[in-house]
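call fold(seq) -> tokens
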Amino acid sequence: MAVAKLRKPKHRVGGTGWWQLRQDPVLFITLIIISISLLVFIVYPLFKVFLLSIRPRDAFTFDVYRGIFGQWWLRQSLYNSLLLGTITATTSTIIGFLFAFALNRTNIPWKGFFGQMVQLPMISPPFMFTLSVILLLGRNGLITKGILGLTNFSIYGLNGLVLVQTISMFPIAFLTLNGVMQGINPDLEEGALDLGASRFAVFRSITLPLSVPGLASSWLLVFVTSLADFANPMVLGGTFDVLSVQAYLQFTGMFNAPRGTALAMMLLIPAMVAFLVQRYWVSKKSYVTVTGKPSSPRILAVSPWLRWSLFALCSLVCLVILAFYGTVIMGAFVKTWGVDFSFTLEHWRYAWDVGVNSIKSTVFLALIATPITGILAMIIAFILVRKHFPGKKLLGLTSMLAFAVPGTVVGIGYILAFNEPPFILSGTAAIIVLCFVFREVPVGIESGVASLIQIDRSIEEASTNLGASTGYTFSRITLPLIRPAFLAGLFFAFTRSMTAVSAIIFLVSARWHHLTVLILSQTEIMRLGAASVLSLILIIIVLGAFAIMRLVVRDTTTRQLPR
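ret:
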């Protein structure tokens, strides 16, 4: 009997999930609302895509998939997608690692400049660099025709796509590896050097092995991003077909919805596998040696040839980025690229006439989606970190699912799911806003989780012990403490909402258009001047939002400093 009495409280502690739900109705209601939202706006669209691919005529069959694998050109599209993703992920990870190593482990000049430049591709339209490549290396390119006089050179295809995707996606690898390099204690490397090891031996036996999880994460993240890329292959692919473009063409151009959904599901499989592997590697942080002793970042001595080689590499990549940006700026003010380089403002007048409504719609939709995304992300992060309840891991996995799903799959899924009762949202602003919210919320969740882990639970427990509800504690205690993460999530959500294309190209309508879709259409009809102007307008809007966000963060930090 005494044993039973001792075990009863222990059983209650072990079952704190159900007990906490019974004691906290606000938490219970919030979980119900979030769970239903995730099921309706993430799981349900994916289910509709899969269902149509195996049930094209109200009967279950795999004929659609057999038909795809029976046609060589569709098999070739799958192979091309995997090939492009593999090459892009490899080159991007190598460049990102070298950038991270140079900025964290060497004393190369212009570190601040390189650190700022590496972020520029992340705030640009996804196919802005494609536009620049066409202007520089296309048939009437400034370099190919104007300088080198080449007439038979073609940048379209695999080579051009690798160049564009590498420049636009290597910052993803850099951001991951930059954190990994900062987390490696330099005492390990200095100790090995003091014991007589060569610099290369230290790099091979210490720095590189400790970076392996980050390298794998970076590679897989870029691989997933490359698979999901739609705009660049659409414009620059030429005869090099990929799954994302074929799924779009089959669904919208050839009106073969079952085949389009089947291609989308084929695109989803390698993306999901890569995502799960990436999550596995991220969880293996035990490979990074972290001691309890405080340490500060220190620059290790490297040979002059390595220092200047890394400086040359960083300079070359940044020069390419600047050249791409400069080309878009120049293209907005010249009359006919490759033929007449005289100054003109005609592109600005034309772009404003055709794009003013798209600009207004894009900014409006982004402003609506951004706060919803940021708040929802912080709520989910708070629940995942601070609360215990049944199905917690499943909720976390579902909330992150949209990040691994290519945009083409999401767009097709939203069209199928919300074009019939009980959810008729097609042609409305709501379907685009909801797509933005549930596509971008995973990044905010990750940011919130990382911040909450650093905050002592006792601060929130004191509020709860004094009788405050979960909602009050979150709004008055937790949210102010994680404000920098919240603002970072808001900025990311706004940027992605302004520059998205692969998912919302299926969702735009005559009433609610999007600026990136307009830029893509102008590029396809070779109105490169107007596309350049619209790209510049989009970049200016995003940079303006970024500047405002930095001022807010700086003001917040200043007010939090002790006086």
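The chain is about 75% helix and 0% strand.
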